[in-house]
Amino acid sequence: MKRHLNFSLKKYNTFGVDSTAKEFIEFDNEEELLDYFRNNFPEKHLILGGGSNLLFTGDFDGTVIHYNKKGIEVISENDYEVLIRASAGESWDALVEFSVHNRWYGIENLSLIPGTVGAAPIQNIGAYGVELKDCLTEVEGLNLSDMQKEILPADKCNFEYRSSIFKEKLKNKFLISAIVIKLSKSKKLNLDYRALKEYFHGKNIDDIDIEDVRNGVIAIRKSKLPDPSELGNAGSFFKNPAVNINRLDSLQSLYKDIPYHKIDEKTYKIPAAWLIEKSGMKGKRMGNVGVHKSQALVIVNYGNASGKEILEFAEMVRRAVYENFGIELEYEVNII
């Protein structure tokens, strides 16, 4: 365990915002966590992974908890599938790379998503037609309400679109130490997402393997999304809004080209990026903050913008969309 006071969080958030934590504690294993929380319980605390889905709008006057333990292990397998446990401090993409290298199918579409394994269940990460909930079997961790180790099966995690029990009811009350996922040993590729269809256009699916999919996803992401190490960002800043069929019909009468994705018979999702672009905000810049020129869902820090500046700009984007479409965008990024 390592304890730091007045600790800079600039390297611990992908926006590169300069925020200071009153206290920052790093833990290397569950035993350290248990010992600490049974003897000290900080009234104000934040569980921080890679900081790839949050925005600090000021200094954090409390204790930041950072779990470092890494590791990937196979806990069981048969001829058809494999169960893998990955520690929370492990890089998410390292887990994907490990799986692809072993030709185990299920998370290759989630390649190059930044952040740690422990952060993945919190917002039920997803991309290119796949979500973590599709393969996750359980989440292991420490329940801070009773200081006991606990295992939550996937069906108790309340997974929804970019949300889970860890983002709502158990926010900062459950410290994830590891996850267990189930992957297939049989070839099962998900290439239904439009960007992947376009990338592999003209190719026979029998000639496409798991490494091709990973490479394709990486190429697509790099072409559309800025590298946080070069341009501060937290990926998609907004969620894609859901509307009912009546609202969709109304919008279609005004915008014949409006894209949408059917969720069920009554619910449809509209790409927030399309709404932002149609509102004239794609590529818009204000000082050191702006909407990325290639991906309207991404707000970027062009220099030394503060978290407050970024949030003010995000609110301006929301207002523009509401004024044009009457739709209120929700933040996907966690505002601290």
TrEMBL record:
Any one of the GO BP annotations: peptidoglycan biosynthetic process
InterPro entries in alphabetical order: FAD-bd_PCMH, FAD-bd_PCMH-like_sf, FAD-bd_PCMH_sub1, FAD-bd_PCMH_sub2, MurB, MurB_C, MurB_C_sf, Oxid_FAD_bind_N
Subcellular localization: Cytoplasm
Example of a GO cellular component annotation carried by this entry: cytosol
GO molecular function: FAD binding; UDP-N-acetylmuramate dehydrogenase activity
Pathways per UniProt: Cell wall biogenesis; peptidoglycan biosynthesis
Reactions mediated catalytically: UDP-N-acetyl-alpha-D-muramate + NADP(+) = UDP-N-acetyl-3-O-(1-carboxyvinyl)-alpha-D-glucosamine + NADPH + H(+)
EC number: 1.3.1.98
Keywords: Cell cycle, Cell division, Cell shape, Cell wall biogenesis/degradation, Cytoplasm, FAD, Flavoprotein, NADP, Oxidoreductase, Peptidoglycan synthesis
Record-stated family: Belongs to the MurB family.
Stated role: Cell wall formation.
Name this protein carries in UniProt: UDP-N-acetylenolpyruvoylglucosamine reductase
Species annotation: Melioribacter roseus (strain DSM 23840 / JCM 17771 / VKM B-2668 / P3M-2)
